[in-house]
Design brief:
This protein has helices spanning 25-42, 67-81, and strands at 2-7, 10-18, 46-51, 85-86, 93-94, 99-100, 103-107. The protein has two helices and seven strands.
Length: 113
């Protein structure tokens, strides 16, 4: 879902994204790139509210061949390509045994937020 909203004096494209846990890597990367491209065509300033099911807290704890580790590297690459920054730095899912950062707010223009 995508809407255009005005925050302060700037217009932003606001999009919600959910990555199912078992989506194939190539499909996920292609679809995410397509979403980033489409939203960037609507507005030069974007905000993505997302559940990527990819822990951004401690990616180095993941084995290099783990599925989550692969998604993490791909996500970081896409954030670099589209000049996006994650505004959330604290865990968004806390259980008795773990803390993870799965839910992100991504933007390319945090000065107006």
């Amino acid at each position: 879902m995508m809407v255009k909203v005005k925050i302060n004096r700037s217009w932003f494209a606001l999009a919600g994204i959910y990555k199912p846990p078992n989506i194939p890597k190539s499909q996920w990367k292609f679809e995410l790139s397509s979403i980033f491209d489409a939203v960037n065509m609507i507005s030069s300033d974007v905000i993505f509210l997302s559940d990527f099911n990819c822990d951004m807290m401690e990616p180095k704890k993941l084995p290099m061949d783990s599925l989550s580790g692969v998604y993490y590297r791909d996500l970081c690459d896409l954030l670099d390509i589209y000049n996006l920054e994650n505004l959330i730095t604290s865990p968004t899912r806390i259980t008795k045994t773990s803390k993870t950062l799965l839910d992100l707010i991504l933007t390319n223009n945090k000065k107006h937020i």
